[in-house]
Amino acid sequence: MFIDASAIVAIINEEPGSDEIVRRIEDHKGQRFVSPLVRFEVVAAVARSRSGATRPTSEQCETAEKTVDAFCASIGAKDITITPSVGAKALMAARTYGKMVGHEADLNFGDCFAYACARAYNARLVYKGNDFLKTDMA
After folding, report:
1. What separation, in Å, do the N-terminal and C-terminal C-alpha atoms of the chain show?
2. What is the pTM (predicted TM-score) of this model?
3. Where does the chain bind Mg(2+) (predicted)?
4. Which residues sit in the known binding site for Mg(2+)?
5. Mean pLDDT throughout 78-96?
6. Does the pLDDT value for residue 33 go beyond 90?
């Protein structure tokens, strides 16, 4: 199982629907994966969500990073290495489903890499939202 940033942000920020995401993660008996890109995206999103109308401070970013690290450790998530093969799969996702080609899935940079990581490890993709529903990962 590869866990997209959207799923982790939803859980940490206790967004509507996060209970279902937690259940899917807990019910999965195999390996759970994240990537450095996912961690970066989640730290940025969590820090922004906790900073109000201002930019997050260095301390808020550090606190968010510790929160993300603790969450990933609590679910036993293993970090995936971003290899040239993963990069090639991300480019394929962008060409097929990306914003840059106007596909209705509208995958952004992070989405394309989440797609690629899940493909590279033949893993189910856990996410929040509808973007991936319009791909072959649904």
Report:
1. 13
2. 0.95
3. 4, 111
4. 4, 111
5. 97
6. yes
